[in-house]
Amino acid sequence: MVITAQPGGIEPILYKWETLRDRAVASPGNASFGLSATTPAGLVIYDVPLTANRTLTLSSCTPRHGHVLEVVRTASATGAFSIDVGGMKQLTAAGSSARLVYRSGAWVLLG
Length: 111
Fold this sequence. Notes:
Elements: E1 2-6, E2 9-13, E3 25-26, E4 33-34, E5 43-46, E6 54-57, E7 68-73, E8 83-85, E9 89-91, E10 97-103, E11 106-109
C-alpha cells in the first residue's frame, strides 16, 4: 500500500494486479490517437516519421486515480511536426517524451 497526501487528508492507494493492464502499449504510427474506455494505454509510442501535426486526446472516463501515461516520440519519429499531448505539452523533437498521472479527476503533467 502507498499512502499519498491529498488536499483534505491522506488517501491510501492500493496497487493491485488489475492496474498492470493499464500499461497496455499503443503505437498509433503516423496518426492522431485518443484514449478511451476501449484503449486504456499506459504507454503510447510514436516511432515512425510524422508527416503532419498529431494530437493525443486524453480521456477522463478511462483512467483510475494514479493511472500513469507515458508518451514517447522515439528517434525514429522524425519530421518537422509535433505531437500535442492533450494540450499539456508539445513533443516537437524526435527523442522527446511526456509523463502524466491521473489524479483527483484530472490529468497532471509530470514532465
